[in-house]
């Protein structure tokens, strides 16, 4: 650290440096614990594709390593207060010494993560219209999946790859999704929707399967439901599409993995 | 003189940063407060923001730890020694040197400055400067996680290498380092972490910088290698500080991306993002202003990938790591003003043209 103003109150500087070091340590350890909490509570599934969960393990370990290193550093540097600055005596990274605004910015994820209850993206997050076509193409596995085993993404992929929707007529379906409806929908129709996430929620896109169910109006927007019934081609939003004719709609808990992974 | 200059830059930088931060905060707050259901909107914003942060931060941490280790253990002499003597071969190698020494755009400038004092040819330094922030294993991994193997991953690497070598060759015509470096920049000791920098090295560096003789390496006093334990401690210390320095760009960038996805209507985004020319320019401006570290910018790009053209995403992912606000400020500390202008304009124009060309000619 370059001290440009040597006439500065030295004791004041020391105290400020010490405070910054402590805040820094608390933020690092706090972020480490936040990652550990996300992993243990399963909240991680609200944010990223589980395929990359191991990256969060790495982050937790590195945060705790840096935090604990800093803690030891502060505790052992008490005697020689000057000595502890030595290690970051860099000119090369243009490190301004850490300031409180920087610390405050880095604390934002910690504050938001603890204060705001963790929730997956739901019906309210659907900005535009919801897609009834899956972006990614069908893979071979989709066809070996029996109809009752298909999730909403599998069904849309099947729609994509099939020439004539009527081939699907009469196939049984059993899917879980959240309720999504628009005022323009037929009163007996809603969509069973999911978000797909390939990397993290930044690339989330909403997909949905139209469902015909007499009690559609009674279903609250965003409620998680299991829908059972059979496929039958019909008209939805002006298009001919396979529509799930529900025989049973039951409210269920939000699944542990709220997103589908393409 | 030197320290005052640095102080002025620092102040300027702080000013820019504060303004950008306040403006962003005001926009976000205004948009949040004007939304019909504050609680719901804030919840969605938070989920999107934390999603980007959680996916990106492991790469930022890895980057800072590696950067700390390089800072502690690798000396510029080591890099200078392995460079081929043939300038053309060295320029080609400069583009891939990041695989051996993964540095992001903030770590690369001081390394290059130091290398020039070791007699590195002009073109090699410029190529390394522009390519290393992208062409390295950490960025390869993070781009793969975000986009998988596809046009974005391949395009990002190919475009970066092509542009970096092209600009390097342009600079080869501008001849020797002393023509482009600020006279006093070589006075500043670079590789930090060892105490004797303040003593004899600067004068040695100055002499080298003024003469810039190839092969002058042997004259260099050389920084003693630290012991393993001291090196590791210095590395962890650097990594901790650098996490905060870099983390703030990631956090502000993620907030902007999440805010945009949550608060700006799809139609507006599509109208901005579907124009083959406009989209590229918008993403380049964003890349410059946001200054997000190259190890994590893929995750921000991901938020735009649904609404913006592929060419503009590639422009964001190639131009941003070469030039942004923070690297410009660092360039200004090392290179002469005219050179900085070229270092900004050449990559900007090349990535822009390539991005627009991709939008017009390829359907990716």
Description:
The complex is a heterodimer of chains A (262) and B (364). With 262 residues, chain A is α/β, with parallel strands linked by helices. Chain A folds into two domains: 106 residues, no CATH class; 138 residues, Bacterial OB-fold (OB fold (Dihydrolipoamide Acetyltransferase, E2P)), CATH 2.40.50.200. A five-stranded mixed beta barrel of chain A has the order 1-2-3-5-4. In chain A, strand 1 and strand 2 form a beta hairpin. In chain A, helix 1 runs antiparallel to helix 2 and helix 1 runs parallel beside helix 3. The longest helix of chain A is centred in the first third of the chain and has 32 residues. Chain A is elongated, with a radius of gyration of 27 Å. About 10% of the residues of chain A have low confidence. By secondary structure, chain B is mostly helical. Chain B has one domain. Helices cover 75% and strands 0% of the residues of chain B. Chain B has 17 helices and no strands. In chain B, helix 8 runs antiparallel to helix 17. Chain B is globular and about 65 Å long. The interface between A and B is large, with 62 and 82 residues.
Distance between the termini of chain A: 49 Å
Low-confidence stretches of chain B: 186-221
Number of domains of chain B: 1
**What's the structural domain tally of chain A?**
2
| Proportion of residues in helical segments of chain A | 25-40%
SSE order of chain A = HHHHHEEEEEE
SSE ordering of chain B: HHHHHHHHHHHHHHHHH
Q: Beta-strand percentage of chain A?
A: 15-25%
Per CATH, which architecture of the largest domain in chain A?
A: Beta Barrel
Alpha-beta content class of chain A: alpha/beta
> Helical segment tally of chain A?
5
What integer value in Å does the Rg of chain A equal?
27 Å
């Amino acid at each position: 650290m370059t001290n440009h103003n040597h006439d500065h109150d030295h004791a004041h500087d020391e105290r400020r440096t010490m405070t910054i070091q402590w805040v820094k340590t608390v933020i690092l350890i706090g972020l480490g614990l936040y990652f550990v909490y996300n992993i243990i509570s399963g909240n991680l599934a609200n944010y990223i594709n589980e395929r990359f969960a191991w990256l969060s393990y790495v982050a937790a370990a590195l945060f705790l390593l840096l935090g604990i290193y800093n803690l030891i550093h502060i505790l052992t540097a008490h005697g020689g207060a000057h000595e502890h600055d030595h290690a970051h005596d860099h000119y090369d990274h243009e490190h301004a010494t850490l300031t409180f605004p920087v610390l405050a910015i880095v604390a934002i994820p910690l504050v938001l993560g603890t204060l705001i209850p963790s929730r997956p993206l739901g019906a309210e997050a659907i900005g535009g219209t919801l897609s009834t076509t899956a972006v990614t193409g069908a893979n071979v596995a989709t066809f070996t999946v029996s109809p009752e085993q298909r999730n909403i993404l599998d069904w849309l992929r099947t729609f994509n790859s099939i020439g004539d929707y009527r081939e699907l007529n009469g196939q049984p379906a059993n899917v879980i999704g959240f309720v999504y409806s628009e005022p323009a929908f037929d009163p007996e129709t809603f969509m069973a929707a999911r978000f797909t996430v390939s990397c993290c929620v930044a690339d989330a896109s909403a997909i949905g399967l139209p469902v015909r169910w007499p009690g559609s109006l009674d279903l609250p927007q965003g409620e998680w439901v299991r829908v059972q019934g059979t496929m039958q081609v019909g008209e939805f939003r002006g298009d001919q599409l396979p529509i799930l004719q529900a025989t049973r709609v039951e409210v269920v808990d939000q699944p542990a993995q709220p997103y589908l992974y393409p | 003189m030197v320290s005052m200059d640095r102080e002025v830059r620092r102040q300027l930088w702080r000013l820019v940063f504060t303004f950008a931060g306040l403006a962003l905060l005001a926009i976000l707050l205004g948009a949040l407060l004007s939304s019909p259901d504050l609680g719901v909107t804030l919840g969605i914003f938070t989920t999107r923001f934390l999603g980007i942060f959680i996916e990106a931060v492991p790469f930022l941490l890895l980057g800072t730890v590696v950067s700390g280790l390089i800072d502690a253990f690798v000396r510029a002499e080591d890099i200078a020694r392995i460079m081929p003597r043939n300038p053309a071969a060295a320029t080609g190698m400069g583009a891939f040197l990041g695989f051996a020494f993964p540095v992001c755009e903030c770590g690369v400038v001081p390394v290059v400055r130091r290398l020039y004092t070791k007699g590195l040819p002009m073109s090699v330094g410029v190529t390394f400067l522009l390519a290393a922030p992208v062409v390295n294993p950490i960025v390869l991994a993070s781009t793969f996680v975000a986009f998988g193997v596809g046009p974005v991953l391949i395009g990002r690497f190919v475009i970066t290498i092509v542009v970096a070598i092209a600009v390097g060759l342009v600079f080869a015509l501008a001849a020797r380092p002393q023509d482009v470096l600020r006279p006093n920049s070589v006075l500043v000791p670079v590789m930090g972490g060892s105490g004797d920098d303040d003593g004899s090295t600067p004068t040695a560096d100055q002499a080298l910088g003024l003469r810039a003789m190839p092969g002058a390496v042997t004259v260099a006093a050389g920084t003693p290698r630290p012991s393993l334990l001291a090196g590791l401690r210095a590395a962890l210390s650097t990594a901790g500080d650098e996490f905060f320095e870099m983390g703030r760009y990631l956090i502000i960038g993620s907030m902007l991306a999440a805010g945009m996805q949550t608060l700006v209507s799809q139609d507006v985004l599509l109208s901005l993002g579907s124009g083959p020319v406009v989209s590229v320019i918008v993403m380049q401006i964003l890349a410059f202003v946001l200054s997000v570290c190259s190890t994590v910018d893929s995750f921000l790009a991901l938020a735009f990938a649904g609404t913006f053209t592929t060419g503009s995403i590639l422009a964001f992912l190639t131009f941003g790591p070469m030039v942004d606000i923070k690297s410009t400020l660092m360039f200004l500390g090392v290179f002469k003003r005219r050179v900085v202008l070229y270092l900004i304009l050449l990559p900007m124009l090349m990535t822009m043209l390539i991005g627009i060309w991709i939008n017009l000619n390829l359907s990716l």
